[in-house]
Design brief:
- It is a single chain.
- Helix content is 54%, strand content 8%.
- It has 21 helices and 12 strands.
- The strands form 3 sheets. It has a 7-stranded mixed β-sheet, with helices on both faces.
- Strand 9 and strand 10 form a beta hairpin.
- Helix 3 packs across helix 8.
- The chain is globular.
Length: 632
């Protein structure tokens, strides 16, 4: 008897309720006949988009004009034209981030309070889906138990069932999952059913896992709330998303804004503080101008089951060898397919209580980032898909640009390092006797200072605006440890982000190059608690940054590289100690435990406290002999 037959006979899954999920063609447009008519974009949405994009475009054009005028004083070369193009390429995305954050801050300051749904809310039957693959079993089931308890405490008209959809290959972890499932089902005297299924074959990874559920059991459910293995959602968040979908028949998908929690390491706290303090304004601005053409990030979102099945079946795409290959970052494409078919994709960041965890160390973050880079760059080959909305295409471009900006920054750094002095002693002329410019502008102290001040000003503007408006996003100084603690954490996050940025630039450039040469990244489970890395491993991992930093400092001692690049050189040559610092546990000592703390850490909401307790309980269950489960 195979695993699936055993699970069905044991009642681990409900009766099958099939729902067809046809594979879509990216070469032909498609319209779902059941999707309500959307009409044209609302006039206010057009204005929001103009208010976001026009300032970014205008600022970029002004910068191009200024640099063109500066470079052309003594002639203009093709090399200088390439430099200006790189500057414009990188600056536009920074300017767009600034304008989006400004829009978000303005909306937080002046928007009216959100109005509750008018009239009765239609009841929906919703499946909470948790796909897992060799994950920490106690954490997964602890979060699941906390969410079910939270739902039981809420008043609502909906019904919820929870499914653990396992693709686990490790037999030891698979055994733990089964034991934890039986323990969870035994404790549930609640209004929700709990089910567990482990696939025999890990076909098409997460995409195939969800498609298998839709095709076999999805017909019984109006909607599915897709979660990650580390996802945690408060009862209010789950009900809020379900109410929003029930009251908007045009919506095919509604995405929440996940808040990071659980970080104890230095690098984890940097990400967690940034997400909590700066993320609200950026999310608010993004929600305003995307409107019904939002995006999907693969988890913590509710989806109309019939709509998704009808129009989001993912095809394989051909690789360089002509072989069919899985779409890796599938969520962006699924959002585009839903919108193409006539369903709206909405982003509602004000539905709070949606959480996820984050990689703990710099190396763990980079390893995850390499996988995401490969998937996002794959989207560039799908831009020509027929019928996609212009905003859906922009999401695909934006995701890829998030990685392509690093090679562009890297190229500009090399230009500044090699010819930035604008003197006879620049490195290219020194080593080769060749100067690629007609007459490179002199990088005086004033010029260098102006460029650095402008660059850092643009990068810091979204952070400072968001921090100033933090109270409007629901953050109180008490929950941040007080005003002085908040300001100290703000300064620490900014300084650490500046230190880690050059390292991330190099690592993302490496990720882009790995993807360009066709290297296939391994999509292993995420190290959510961080790996332990030896000095040798860290040296090997960061050897490129270290050599670059050493070369830059050597060039400075010879007068070949401008001293204004010293902060970047220090970060690069210090990549190994900074990587070691990233994994330091701030929670290990009382004096450091509050640094870069957020409300989720300093004054954790009930759902997080319950989840932590349930994780410990399941860890204890799994540590007992197998015959001890029945007693739990």
């Amino acid at each position: 008897m195979d695993d699936l037959d055993r699970q069905n006979q044991a009642g681990w899954m409900p009766s099958e309720a099939a729902r067809a999920m046809p594979i879509q063609s990216l070469d032909q447009p498609y319209r779902d006949a059941t999707a309500p008519a959307q009409g044209t974009a609302k006039s206010r949405t057009v204005w929001w988009r103009a208010a976001t994009f026009l300032p970014a475009i205008a600022a970029t054009c002004a910068l191009i004009a200024a640099f063109t005028d500066w470079f052309a004083m003594d002639g203009f070369s093709a090399f200088e034209g390439v430099v200006i193009a790189l500057i414009a390429f990188t600056f536009f995305w920074i300017a767009l981030s600034v304008s989006t954050s400004f829009l978000g801050v303005a909306n937080l300051l002046w928007a009216r309070p959100r109005i509750a749904h008018d009239g009765p809310v239609p009841a929906m039957k919703v499946a909470l889906l948790i796909p897992v693959y060799n994950e920490d079993t106690a954490d997964v089931f602890g979060n699941a138990a906390a969410m079910l308890q939270a739902l039981d405490e809420q008043k609502h008209v909906h019904s919820f069932d929870l499914f653990i959809l396992s693709d686990t290959r490790d037999p030891v972890i698979a055994d733990q999952e089964e034991r934890a499932f039986l323990a969870l089902r035994a404790q549930m005297g609640l209004g929700s059913e709990v089910f567990y299924r482990r696939r025999i074959e890990n076909v098409d990874r997460k995409v195939g896992n969800l498609a298998d559920w839709i095709e076999n059991w999805g017909g019984a459910y109006d909607a599915m709330l897709v979660l990650d293995a580390d996802s945690l959602m408060a009862g209010e968040a789950i009900i809020g998303l379900t109410d929003a979908l029930a009251c908007d028949p045009s919506a095919g998908l509604i995405q929440s804004f996940p808040t990071l929690f659980g970080a104890q390491s230095v690098f984890g706290r940097v990400q967690q503080f940034s997400n909590r303090v700066y993320g609200a304004a950026l999310a608010e601005g993004l929600a305003k101008w995307t409107d019904r053409e939002g995006n999907y990030w693969g988890h913590n979102a509710i989806i109309r089951s019939a709509a998704f099945a009808s129009c989001a079946g993912l095809p394989k795409v051909k690789n360089r060898k002509g072989n069919g290959r899985l779409i890796l970052s599938h969520d962006f494409i699924e959002a585009g397919l839903l919108r193409r078919a006539g369903w709206s994709v909405r982003f509602l960041p004000r539905i709070g209580g949606s959480y996820e965890e984050v990689p703990a160390t710099l190396i763990d973050y980079v390893l995850r980032d390499r996988r995401w880079c490969q998937g996002n760059l794959q989207h560039l080959g799908l831009l020509g898909s027929r019928g996609f909305h212009a905003v859906s295409r922009f999401h695909l471009i934006s995701g890829a640009m998030g990685y392509l900006m690093s090679p562009a920054w890297f190229a500009l750094l090399l230009v500044w390092a090699l010819v930035g002095n604008g003197q006879e002693t620049n490195a290219i002329r020194y080593f080769s006797g060749f100067d690629p410019q007609v007459s490179w502008p002199v990088m005086s102290t004033a010029n260098s200072l102006a460029i650095l001040a402008f660059m850092y000003g643009m990068l810091l503007a979204p952070k400072l605006m968001s921090a100033a408006a933090a109270s409007r996003s629901g953050i109180t100084m008490r929950d941040m440890g007080g005003l002085f603690q908040f300001l100290g954490s703000l300064i620490a996050e900014i300084m650490l982000s500046i230190l880690y940025a050059p390292i991330m630039m190099v690592q993302q450039t490496i990720a882009v190059l790995r993807t360009a040469i066709g290297y296939q990244e391994k999509w292993n489970p995420q190290q959510r608690r961080g790996g332990t890395y030896s000095l040798g491993v860290m040296i090997k991992f960061h050897i490129v940054e270290t050599i670059m930093g050493a070369a830059m400092i050597a060039g400075m001692t010879q007068g070949l590289v401008t001293l204004w690049l010293l902060p970047i050189a220090i970060s690069l040559i210090g990549a190994v100690p900074l990587s070691a610092l990233s994994g330091v546990n701030l929670g290990a000592k009382g004096w450091s435990g509050r640094q870069m703390g957020t409300p989720e850490h300093l004054n954790a909401p009930r759902i997080i406290r319950v989840a932590m307790a349930e994780r410990q309980r399941f860890a204890a269950v799994l540590a007992t002999p197998e015959n001890g489960i029945a007693a739990e």
